[in-house]
Amino acid sequence: MVVAELAQYVATGLLVGGVYALMSIGLALIFGVMRVVNFAQGDFMMLGMYLTYFYALAGVDPLLGALLTIPPFFVLGWIVHRGLLARVTGGGDPQRQMDAQLILTPTPRGIRTAYATQAFTVGPILLNEARSYAFAMALVLAAALWLFLTRTDAGRALRAAADDPEAASYQGIDVRAMHGLAFGAGIALVAAAGGLLATYYPIEPSVAVNFIVLMFVAVVLGGLGSIPGAFVGGLVIGLVQSLTLLALPFQLQNTGVFIVFLLVLYLRPQGLFGRRARTV
Amino acid sequence: MPSHARSWLAIAAVVAFGLVLALVLQERYHHRVLTLVFLWAAMGLAWNIISGYAGQISFGHQVFFGIGAYVTVLLVVKLALTPWIGMGIAVAVAVLAALLIGLPTFRLAGIYFGLATLAYPLIFRIVMDWLGYQEVAIPMMRERPAWFMQFSEPRSFDLLALGVLAATLVLSRAIETSRLGYRLRAVKENEQAAEAMGVDAFRAKMAAYVLSAAPAAVVGAVYIHAILFIVTPDAVFGLLVISQTLVVSLVGGIGTLWGPLIGAAIMVPVSEVLDSTVGDRLPGIQGVVYGAALMLIMLGAPEGLYWRVRQAVRARAERRAAPARAVTLPPMDTTPASAPTSTVLLEVRDVWKAFIGLQALSEVSFDVREREILGVIGPNGAGKTTLFNVLNGFLLPDRGTIRFRGETVTGLRPSGLCRRGLGRTFQVVRTFPRLSVLENVMVGAFVGARAVGRARAIAGDALSRVGLGDRADAFPGGLTTLELRLMELARCLATAPRLVLLDEPLAGLSTDGVDVMIAMIRRVRAGGVTVVIIEHTMQALLRLADRLLVLDQGRRLAEGAPAEVTRNPVVVEAYLGKRWLARMGTPAC
Q1: Domains in chain B and their CATH numbers?
Q2: What is the DSSP letter of B510?
């Protein structure tokens, strides 16, 4: 009986964690390549949820809808990068990185309030089924990203630009274009994750805040900029959230996550998958 | 940098202007905007102490704002304690929280620190919810409203907020012009160079964190009484508080007390005006306009408005500045001291150091005698710089002991070693780029001097000893390689060291430059300072060193007088390969 209950908590945690993992790899991709912490990632996720909702209103199945958020959000991310971020990023100067983040933070604020009065759920699918489909879809998308990064020339160029922008540019890689690609892909992934989440989670403008924090935690857990790390980090968060319920009341669900987060930061600041460079 | 008197006058002028506004304005709504400007400016200034001066970007500074609000209000609700006293208790709690948060969190550097700080206010938010403090209203105290900070006259809140702002401005200015201020800027610019110059980076950051927590708590307490009246976890620990703080600070410019002031004076009224005009007609649109205005400012002046204006002013002044010139050494003023003594100053015994898969140092033992010049040579990757990093505390040896002036110093931090008289320079010069040459050297001088004036005198003296007296006001970016190396040497000498570790001080210098540097190093020794020097080329060291220590693949290969060492077959083989052994008899150069 106890074992069955525990298994239920673990399963629930992993299913939820799969979607966290997908949204976190988007953030990790952007940080890994651009060295910018995208505080607006949660807002893009929220927009992805709404787009999926609108697709659903038009009769598109939400799981397909989540996939269909990818092209428009890739373009949106690319435009945001070209129009705003490319002007303030590129140098290693932290002040400029801060500026980029400041631009990112308030971007969707106004759009968010335009929907401020509505809150609803999408999908006639039963809860567990929805989570399972979402989980499977998240795995497929993460695998697709992994194949792209490791098996294609563009993916290799992207990783080279992340490792050492200067050396990459000497090899003829257009680092700026790679940043645009990474930002677009990062936004598209989080939007798709939002779409998947929308199949079982209420959509409201304020979801951004709750999830951006979980994404940060996942990315730091896995090691800043590490994509497999962020994926595992997302799964771990789902698990911790779920297992915390065994010991603590519902309101304190996320304290478990933060405690794990702080513990990992203190004990292994480079994260579970990160490498620490030693430069003296 | 503006003179002291001018800055204090400017602060007085700002406060006077605020006072006039508070007295002149009539409408209640205008007073509210004014109060908000003062409070957000003060909050930006508080954040600026840790994130601007010390460079430790904190994304969770609202944790102290929230503590200030909750502690004060709960004391009113539970104990009917006046907020005037409650604020003091709130500050004490915030300071304690800063110590508890900082102690583990400052082990993290850069973005990791920032991300960790995100978590604390979120934890507080959840815990406050759980404790049942989702909404705590300030109870009305009709009998003694002033005693409970419940003014009906909005002007009183203006004055209260202005008082908080004035105190934070004074605190910021005091930090900027103190030893702590210089040390914080050094830590921000280059933490390792600061450590090597005797700055205990951890303690400096902790001091800045505590000093920035206190005003944030006061702002939180006043904000609740002047603006919100009801405290909720979201309102005080939420992300909106930190984003408003970041907005005023980054728009104005960080690392200066004028930045957050300028940012608040512009952005707070803009947002309020938008709320009451377009926001009335099209709810939500004010956020879009505000965001767009913010983006325009950040694209036009990414470094912040204050720095933008200052840069423009300085560019005009620099057109009149004098061009660079050659370094000439001032005449010798010290009589040459005697040759090396037999006293052992530094004793290295059986030191081992491994990195993952690489044994960088094995079984290294040697002595450094007082007033000698010991050259450390060896091929690339021999472990020379690793040896220096172990000697000055950047790396902990896996095994072995190091004794300096008779005291075991293994495991001390670089700053501790520096204060005990062990200075160093770096293979690639490490400057504090945004500090002037004089200020760079002052960071070293603070090891022996508490007062800024005294440090300035020591630094000026050290600069003229290396012949850079007239470059004091330049910035490192405008210096030649030789001048940079000399500046780093002066910074090291300003710490009044007994022994200096020089890591390839001749690298990248022209022939003339090498001559100047060699003469300079001889002078350093003549002044009674012992020198250990790493060099790649044997030729230069043969002119300079009393003794040589040869490292190869992390092991001590040979040690002794230069002529002796260069004839040692083992050394020749390590340097030049076996074939050269056949041509033995000529010194290898």
Answers
A1: 4-238 (1.10.3470.10), 344-421+497-583 (3.40.50.300), 434-488 (no CATH)
A2: -
